Amino acid sequence: MALDAQAATQVAHVLTESLPYIRRFAGKTFVIKYGGHAMENEHLKNGFARDIVLMKLVGFHPVVVHGGGPQISSLLKRIGKESRFVDGMRVTDSETMDVVEMVLGGLVNKEIVNNINRHGGCAVGLTGKDGDLIHARKLTITRKSPDLEAPEIVDIGHVGEVASIDKSIVETLTGGNFIPVIAPIGVGPDGQSYNINADLVAGKMAEVLHAEKLILLTDTTGVLSQEGKLLTGLDARQVQMLIDDGTIHGGMLPKIGCALEAVGGGVKAAHIIDGRIEHAVLVELFTDAGIGTLIRG
């Protein structure tokens, strides 16, 4: 069915609006952290895959880092193992780590790879163990309490943080026609596997790749003011003020910390966008208005 004149004009406007962004970002690397509702809704999953394929086709170098917490919890429940969390981090014993590797490195990673490939891309799935990609160190939590003379060290098992990243395999893939899809599993000096927060991996990956942008897909509209208004453009000083006065709090703090560290490490900008919106990545990158919060150094 043919478009009417008004609809055709609107489509043409969107296409021409994207042209300067395509010119500006051709050949640049973008790290996209993929998670939340965008990974669970079939319609949004297909839209995300098409976004990534289009980015590659117009000359961008997308690198996808994904989470998978709900999928891990679901499988643990099916095998009769309770999910436990300390300060928002999953307690990961050896058995749980086996499940994490199965879900993140297997089921979730390969589903994303397959979806991108079905829509015309050429994706390659990796974990941090492939190509010596992510070196991890064990993460421990320190708790202070007035009842204790010294801080308590909480051991949460195979949970790690990024020690270093060897970017060579990712650059080899992006330099070709490939789209890396990375599960946030690292390996320690002892050869042990470690589960790492996907936001942290995405931020560090953006730093070492000297990415143009870090894009964090979330289940919120972005950073909101105390009046509930979306804050579209912030610098590091403004973000710190919003943290100090309590405007930014709770679950948004780790994402903001990741974004600030990335732009402080040389990434041009970080975007926190609502993954519940179809084609959120393209709308943020290719339109003048965008849809989320942009953070610069």
Unreliably modeled segments: none
Shape: globular
**SS content category:** alpha/beta
- The residue fraction in helices comes out at 40-55%
Strand order of the largest sheet: 5-8-2-1-11-13-14-12
- Count of DSSP E strands? 14
Distance between the termini: 47 Å
Average pLDDT rating: 88
What value does the Rg take, in angstroms?
Answer: 20 Å
How is the biggest beta sheet arranged? 8 strands, mixed
Order of helices and strands: HEHEHEEHEEEHEEEHEEHHEHE
What fraction strand?
25-35%
- Tell me the number of helical segments per DSSP (H or I, 4 or more residues long): 9
Show the helix and strand layout.
Layout: H1 5-25, E1 29-34, H2 42-57, E2 61-66, H3 69-78, E3 85-86, E4 89-90, H4 94-118, E5 123-127, E6 134-143, E7 152-165, H5 168-175, E8 179-183, E9 185-187, E10 193-195, H6 198-208, E11 213-218, E12 233-235, H7 236-244, H8 252-264, E13 269-274, H9 280-286, E14 293-296
Characterization of the model:
With 297 residues, this protein is an alpha/beta fold. It has helices spanning 5-25, 42-57, 69-78, 94-118, 168-175, 198-208, 236-244, 252-264, 280-286; strands at residues 29-34, 61-66, 85-86, 89-90, 123-127, 134-143, 152-165, 179-183, 185-187, 193-195, 213-218, 233-235, 269-274, 293-296. α3 crosses α4 and α6 runs parallel beside α8. The model has no long low-confidence stretch (mean pLDDT 88).
